[in-house]
Amino acid sequence: MQDIAPLQSFPPVYNDLTTVMVIGSLPGTVSLAAGEYYAHPRNHFWPIMSALTGKELTSLQYEDRLSEILLRGIGLWDSVRTASRRGSSDANICGHDSNDLGQLLAGLSKLKLLVFNGQTAARFGRQSLPAAPPLDVAVMPSSSPAYTLSLPRKIAAWRLVETYLHPTGPGAPY
Q1: Which of these, 66, 92, 114, 118, has the minimum number of CB atoms within 10 Å of its CB?
Q2: Which CA distances in Å does 82 have to 46, 97, 101, 129?
């Protein structure tokens, strides 16, 4: 794959409220072209986040989606910093360089849960974590349309994340 230009992940998305960090593998071609996490219309990420936050996110503009998840304590990043890949399949990732998740963890004082969005994200991401990370770590079913588990079953698995989210609504501290 030496004839393929290396792909680069996006910068992390987080703030001082981040209690849950969702770690993907590497944005797919649609996401890279759009410059947005989970931009493919068939990716289940935003419908999953809608279910977890109780807010319809799929119809919002991208920046508004990010604002909504950040308000609830959810951040985003990828386990792969750079790699070569034909198409969008994680199976085609080669020559990867990992993002430094350990450094990210050290800078997020309220972080309680690191969520890998699929097995590939976990496989690559664990390479840059301390042996015993000082927080909970979970591997969720991939939100990718290539992972054919139904959306309701994905949402059911991802419900674990809800217990780590910031409260919202009248009287909520955030």
Answers
A1: 92
A2: 24, 5, 14, 17
pLDDT tens-digit series, residues 25-70: 888 888 988 999 999 999 999 999 999 999 999 999 999 999 999 9
Six token digits for residue 54: 């109780």
Q: Can you give the pTM of this predicted structure?
A: 0.88
CA distances, 137 to each of 57, 69, 84, 120 (Å):
25, 19, 27, 15
- For residue 115, give the nearest of 95, 133, 89 by alpha carbon: 133
For the segment 77-93, the average pLDDT, to the nearest whole number, is 69
